[in-house]
Amino acid sequence: MNFEHLNALKALLSSPKKIAIIPHKNPDGDAIGSTLALWHYLQNKGHESTIVSPNDFPKFLKWIPGANKILNFERENKESKECLRQAEVIFTLDFNHLGRVGQMTENLENAEATFVMVDHHQQPSDYAKIMYSDVAMSSTCEMVYNLIKLLGDVDEINPDMANCLYTGIMTDTGSFKFKATTSNTHRVVADLMDRGAENTEIHHRIYDTNSPSRLHLLGCALKNMVILEEFSTAYITLSQEELDRYDYQKGDTEGFVNYGLTLDGIRFAVIFIENKEEGILKISFRSVGDFSVNDFARNHFEGGGHTNAAGGKSDKNLEDTTAYFKSLLPQYKKELTQ
Ligand code: 5GP
Ligand code: MN
């Protein structure tokens, strides 16, 4: 974060403010962990802050300290809108364009507040007056840690905040193994453990939460996997009917896409998940090496993200979408197989 923006933020927070904190739609561990850590921090500093999530989040994140205080824009719509209207400052965390908050987009566009962005995705848009955007960062949680440190308050990180931040760093780095995991990420994590993060317990609460139906859904997903050796690509489909058959709960498909990449020689993995209610397919893209799924998602599926992890969507059905997807691959053959 540059000095100009840091000083502007210091000035902004020098007196008590009404603050709204926003994660992206379908928030993951990093989005929930970072918004909650910041929420604890701002509350302790005497600000009146509220997290407004565009929609609900998975059960395996509900234990995180403070999670029960998060407003759900879909469920607590009136209260959420009022909060956004009254906010003097709006922090947007773990996303960088307003289209990422679904139905809340309009309310953010019309808000009077000063916007602060903290995010590690590529190609940020320019809605925020104060920006801390760094695509080299492992996670927004690592950035919130840095931010608190830059504000001179690292000693105010209590065990609750440490647990929030540890959670997001752990989930966004695939438990400290993805490329964006640096020695500094490990130093931050070590400091969070010293400040009370319960590493083993967090791992257990996030990853050891399978239900029999989720494992059966995983079995179905793996059976559906199509391997296109010619393009070093593997993709999975899940129809609404299959999700219903295995009693799909929010968050159940988290991590499924990664299985494609565990195959020797596969460098591009995709999952297409039907959502009948929204009339779309939600798509996740993962890669290893230089193939940019951010560009791929941006260019063909109205999405974006990072070089090796991105998301997008399609309005077509599963059959047409996968046919379109396969028709795109020949133009990337060299990149995918070199
Ligand atoms: P996931 O596949 O786990 O939903 O998301 C992978 C990464 O891409 C995350 O960093 C997420 O924030 C981002 N992402 C997911 N869906 C979209 C999307 O529709 N648009 C953009 N710009 N980013 C997305
Ligand atoms: Mn993130």
General description of the model:
- With 338 residues, this protein is of the alpha/beta class.
- The protein folds into 2 domains: 3-207, inorganic pyrophosphatase (n-terminal core) (Alpha-Beta Complex), CATH 3.90.1640; 212-337, Diaminopimelate Epimerase, Chain A, domain 1.
- The chain is 38% helix and 18% strand.
- It contains 13 helices and 12 strands.
- It has helices at residues 3-12, 29-44, 77-86, 105-109, 140-150, 159-172, 183-194, 199-207, 212-224, 240-245, 293-300, 318-328, 333-337; strands at 18-22, 48-53, 71-72, 89-93, 114-119, 130-133, 226-228, 233-238, 268-275, 280-287, 304-305, 309-314.
- Strand 1, helix 2 (29-44) and strand 2 (48-53) form a beta-alpha-beta unit.
- Helix 6 (159-172) runs antiparallel to helix 7 (183-194).
- It is globular and about 60 Å long.
- The structure holds guanosine-5'-monophosphate (5GP) and manganese (II) ion.
- Residues 30, 94, 120, 139-140, 172 line the site of manganese (II) ion (MN).
Give a short synopsis of this structure:
The protein has 338 residues and is of the alpha/beta class. It has two domains: 3-207, inorganic pyrophosphatase (n-terminal core); 212-337, Diaminopimelate Epimerase, Chain A, domain 1 (Roll).
User: Strand order of the main beta sheet, please?
Assistant: 3-2-1-4-5-6
Strand content: 15-25%
- What is the distance, rounded to the nearest whole angstrom, between the alpha carbons of the first and last residues? 36 Å
CATH topology of the largest domain: inorganic pyrophosphatase (n-terminal core)
Instruction: Determine the CATH superfamily of the largest domain.
Output: inorganic pyrophosphatase (n-terminal core)
Number of domains: 2
Largest sheet: 6 strands, parallel
What is the 3D form? Answer: globular
CATH class of the largest domain: Alpha Beta
Number of helical regions = 13
Structural class of the helices, strands and pairings?
alpha/beta
